[in-house]
Amino acid sequence: MAENNGEPEHWRRLLVVFAVRSACDRAWAYFLPLALSSLRSSCGWRARADGVLSAAAALYLVRTVVEVAAVPAAAACWDGTPRRAVSFLAAEQACLVVSAAVLHALGAAEGRCAPLPLLAACGVATGVEASLSKTLWNAVEKQQTFAESMRGDADGAHVRLAAKNAALSRIDLAVGALTPFGVGALASSLGVTRALVALVCIQLAAAAAAAPWLLRTVARQHESDDKVRFVCSAPMRLDYDCHPLVTACPAAQCQRYRDDRGLQKEPG
Fold first, then answer.
1. Are residues 217 and 236 in the same domain?
2. Of 186, 141, 167, nearest to 27 (Cα)?
3. The pTM is what?
4. Which residues, 6 or more positions from 157, have their beta carbon under 8 angstroms from its beta carbon?
């Protein structure tokens, strides 16, 4: 049943896109240690005084450091336009392919590899990929979740927002519990190398399938920015629409409106 001009359909599509994206992200995260453990003997990695960390720990260390630096940079580059969404999505998939190619190179070297440079390259690629993914999808999904919760009476908006965020959390937890079984079955049936190719192809196909919905949603959100700035100018609704606890609210747009007009933020 499609009420309010098909609005429930938009929410169902968001849930599907969120579930598929969460599955792809978690599958890749679970597969990396599995791939590294299977390549450990072929590359001749040994415990040394200057290499106490395991290969997986070293990779995730590099990835985390890159994410810490790249997430603010990606957030600063995000402007909410469809063109920027396309560039983020394309760069994210390119980094995914690069990291997969590095992992394949680690396995093909057969003892002649230099693990530290290759691990660092894989960590940088996966860190940049994760940063772009978090920035892009968090911006779109959180703002769309907030927009869906605003449909209906204003008094129940916060209740609807909590319910929709809880639904996303349940999906994320369910996907997190089931994904390791799927990754393990895929690696057991195909082998690590073929499973690597399969996972990359699945994520590329999922990104291509989600791209039309993503671009339509970003375009709709970008067109509504002027309306958001107008709503933020209403004194009676300033705290409600731009409350700092509402993470999906485009607070940067609201603050820009205040700065342009010399308005001060009301004390919370």
1. no
2. 186
3. 0.72
4. 149, 150
Is residue 241 domain-shared with residue 174, that is, in the same domain? no
CA distance 174 to 177: 5
CA angle 152, 156, 162 (to 5 degrees): 110
Token pair 């010399």: residue: 262
SS3 48: strand
Per-residue pLDDT tens digits of the chain, which is 268 residues long: 444 444 577 788 888 989 998 898 888 888 887 777 766 544 444 444 333 346 777 788 888 899 999 999 999 999 888 899 999 999 999 999 999 888 888 766 555 545 677 888 888 999 999 999 989 988 888 888 887 777 766 667 788 888 888 888 999 999 989 998 988 898 889 888 888 889 999 999 999 998 988 888 888 877 765 555 444 444 434 343 444 334 444 444 455 444 444 444 444 4
- My answer on whether 165 and 265 are in the same domain is no
196-233 in b/e form (b: 16+ CB < 10 A) is bebbbebbeeebeebeebbeebbeebbebeeebbebbe
**Tokens of residue 47, six digits:** 């415990």
Distance CA 234, CA 229 (A): 9
Number of residues in the chain: 268
Considering the domain architecture, whether residues 185 and 267 belong to the same structural domain is answered as no
Tally DSSP H helices, then E strands, for the chain.
9, 0
Which amino acid is present at 205? A
Q: 242: helix, coil or strand?
A: coil
Q: What angle do CA 238, 242, 248 make, to 5 degrees?
A: 155
To which residue do tokens 């396995």 refer?
107
Indicate whether 93 and 12 sit together in one domain. yes
